[in-house]
Every structure is written in structure tokens, then in C-alpha cells.
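Let's practice the habit of predicting before peeking. Look at the sequence and jot down your guess about where helices and strands might fall. Then scroll down.
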Amino acid sequence: MLIPNRHYAELKESYLFARIAEKTKAYLAEYPGKRLLRMGIGDVSQPLCPAVITALHAAVEEQAAKETFHGYLPECGAPFLREAVAKHYESRGVTLSPEEVFVSSGASDELGHLLDLFAPENPALIPEPAYPAYADASVLAGRRIVFLPTTPEEDFLPSPARAEEGELVYLCSPNNPTGAVLDRARLKAWVDWASRRGAVILFDAAYEAFIADEALPHSIFEIEGARECAVEICSLSKTAGFTGTRLGYTIIPRELRRGGMSLNAMWVRNRTTKSNGVSYILQRGGEAVFTPEGQTQVRQTLRIYQDNAKVMASALDRLGIRYTGGRNAPYLWLECPRGYSSWEFFDLLLRRIQVVGTPGEGFGESGEGWFRFSAFGSPEDTREAMTRLQELLG
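Done guessing? Here is the structure:
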């Protein structure tokens, strides 16, 4: 008799974004003429930049001719893209070999797949509020989870001083959902903590391109000692608008070893066993992101989202609502006004002003009473949503 993975039964009844989708669908069925301003899910609104489009078109044309056709590529990534990523890190003072760069179909996929490298009896430490996939992927792998709540008083920044256990540590900076960014001193404290314990940090750097403060680190590998205790997961989704194109990369240093085994070599074996890699066409598009032309163009797009964040921050300031994020991150994490719970505030905004945000309760118990706005909408929708919010709460 087939035995299913019973850990699926341990998941929460409804995934956060699925519940949001259900609620908005029900509202539109009740009021079909209403237009919603979606400030919740972090999907981008701007198109791929011209350098990427040009590269994608050229790669498609190559696939149409026998002389330039490409079939299977190396499972861990095409050398041209791995080298481009390594050179990008070098421009920030981080030395990587291309063999330490693994091309992926995106950060979300990789965060789940990487758990294959670690025995399920090692508990996961997840600072909350947190992206819900961290916990869900750990549950599906049969891993015990230790939650580390963060508070407004500490600006939602996790401290290893309060971490008593956990061999696999999830850190996200800039953080989703709070927008909090770990500075060098705090990140060094986590690296030192992991090194003492023999733990491994899974560092989610999906939003690093939004860091505007030059004093803040973009990569955990800017921190001394991180090569012996950390894996970094990156995405082009928010950096370059690849949410529908799906491409990212993961950094696993060769120095990272546990139990006499190289995690870099283990991941090579995992990918060559479980994956045929990412398509040639998409990898050529990704390579274009790291050209001088591509970097100029993606920064222009990022400024649109950064300006959106300023519009949101200005509205919250005028309303006297406490929040974090916005400056070095694409999310604003605000305290629900007037004592509303996070789902009550969601329903209020949906029904009264047709604005969709993300309830903080969906990011863990410590997110209750808080709410996330995304800066990834269009400038027009962002301004209109904030006008409606100020009229509702002003």
C-alpha cells in the first residue's frame, strides 16, 4: 500500500497568498465592476529591461539554426552565467569562483530543494515574522522548527543572543515582510554564532538590490567567516523583473563542510541527479542583467519601486502610523491602526477602498497586528492607493 508523505497534513490549512486570492476572488464575484489596487503580493509591474529582451530574442534565434542550437546545458548552470555572477560579486569586493555559483529557477524553488543537503533531525531556526515558505518547506521535510520572534522594539531584527538552538538558520535581509536590514555587526554576530555551533545559515538575499545605504552589506559573504557557515540564495525576480521568467542563483562556497562532507560537492551531485538545469534562452537573458547596459537599465526600474516606497512612507508618516522598511527594501511593514487585527485590516481595506495588502498574521504569530504593503505596483496605482488610505484613515 502506498504511504503518502504525512507531513503535508501538518501544514497550515491555507497558504497565506492562496487565502488572499480566495478573499479577493469572492469580493470581485460580489462586486464585479470594482477595480482592485493590489499592494500585497510582491509581483513586479515593470517589464524586463531592453538588454534582457535583446538577449532573449538573440538566444531564441540561435535555437532556430543548426549551427547555433543548444541542447542540454550543464545542470549547475552555463559557464557564461556562472562567470557573470562571480564577476558581479567581485565588483562588490567578494571573491567567488564560478564553480561556487549554481544557476536556479528562482529563490523559492531553491529554498525548498536545499533542504536535501541536511538531515531532517537538525532543527530549523526561523526568525519571525518570516516568509511562510521557510516553515512550510521545513514541515514537508519533516524538520522540527524553532521560531525566534522579533519585536518592534528591536526593529524586527533577529539577534543570535536570543537563539538557543537550531542547526539550520534562515536569515532574510532585506527582510520579507518587515523590510529590516541586517547591518555588518549584527550579521557578523550571526556568522560567529553559526560557526561556534557548526550551524549553517541559509541567507535569502532576494531583495539585496534595494539596499540604498552603502554601509549595509548586500551579501553575507562580505562578512569574515561566512564562507565556512553560509549559503546565499539570490533571485532575479525582484532585481530584474524575472518573476514570470524564473531565474536565480545560489552561492555555496567550497570551504563549507559539515561532517567531513563538502556541501558544494553535495549540491553538484544533487543537481546532476535531480535537475537538467535552466534553459539556455533564460540563462542568456540572465547574463544580460550583469552587463554594464543591463545594470544601468535595471537600476532605472528599481528606482520606480523605490519612489513608490517613498510615496507609501510619506502617506504613513502623515497618518502617524508606525512602520519599518521602505528605504532599503521594497516592503513597508506597518502597525494596524485603531486596534485592528491584521485580517480585520485586510477586510477593511478591501471592502472600503478596494486596496489589497498582506496581513501580518500570515507571516507568523509575531506578525499579528501588522500589515505589509508592497512597492512593486505601478506608480499610478501606488499613488491612488495611498490617497484612498489617507481618506479612509485621516
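How did you do? The first strand starts at residue 37 and ends at 38.
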